[in-house]
Design goal:
By secondary structure, the chain is an alpha/beta fold. The protein is 20% helix and 20% strand. The strands form two sheets. A three-stranded mixed beta sheet has the order 1-5-4, covered by helices on one side. It has a three-stranded mixed beta sheet with strand order 2-3-6, with helices on one face.
Length: 98
């Protein structure tokens, strides 16, 4: 899936992972390999694949306005993936997810 199609579940993230690795250094470690299908390139990361879900909250009317969107609780990893994908624009970028 394209990392830019996944939404965050938090408004803010810490600038380091729990291991102490900083996000900027991690972004530099992400590489691009040739893609297939709908993607020009696939990102290879130094971390495990992010887990994505269809997560939504009903509004006051009972509707589920975000039901068609993907979200992740892996916000720092998503940030790294999105920065790497944006740097490769206009190529169509994909990443492995769970």
């Amino acid at each position: 899936i394209c990392p830019l199609a996944v939404r965050f579940t938090q408004d803010h993230i810490r600038p380091v992972f729990q291991t102490g690795q900083d996000l900027e250094g991690t972004i530099r470690e992400i590489t691009a390999k040739p893609g297939s299908g709908d993607y020009d390139v696939i990102l290879e990361t130094p971390f495990d694949a992010i887990e994505i879900i269809r997560w939504h909250k009903r509004d006051a009317s009972g509707a589920e306005p975000d039901a068609r969107h993907w979200f992740t609780f892996d916000n720092r990893r998503l940030y790294c993936l999105q920065r790497a994908a944006a740097a490769l624009w206009p190529k169509r970028v994909g990443a492995v997810v769970q």
